[in-house]
Design goal:
The protein has about 80 residues and is an all-alpha fold. The protein has one domain. It is about 85% helix and about 0% strand. The chain has 2 helices and no strands. α1 runs antiparallel to α2. The N and C termini lie far apart (about 55 Å).
Length: about 80
């Protein structure tokens, strides 16, 4: 089973691919594979960002509920 990349690992690999393409270090024969890999990495990054956003929103909602319940209990 392949190791699941962290966001940072995926982002750094994506940056390297972009740099290679921009600097002309990618031959035409490799370009298609690099673009496919870049698309995979973008998908990984996007999914991790969406997941993190959901987690943060859930935590904020829980904090808001706790805060609201505390204020109601004081009254």
């Amino acid at each position: 089973m392949a190791k699941q990349l962290t966001y940072i690992e995926a982002f750094e690999e994506l940056q390297q691919i972009v740099n290679d393409i921009e600097e002309g270090e990618t031959g035409i024969d490799q370009l298609s594979e690099k673009v496919k890999r870049a698309a995979e990495l973008i998908k990984i990054c996007k999914n991790k960002l969406i997941s993190t956003e959901k987690d943060v929103n859930k935590i904020l909602d829980e904090l808001e509920e706790t805060s609201t319940n505390s204020v109601e209990a004081e009254t």
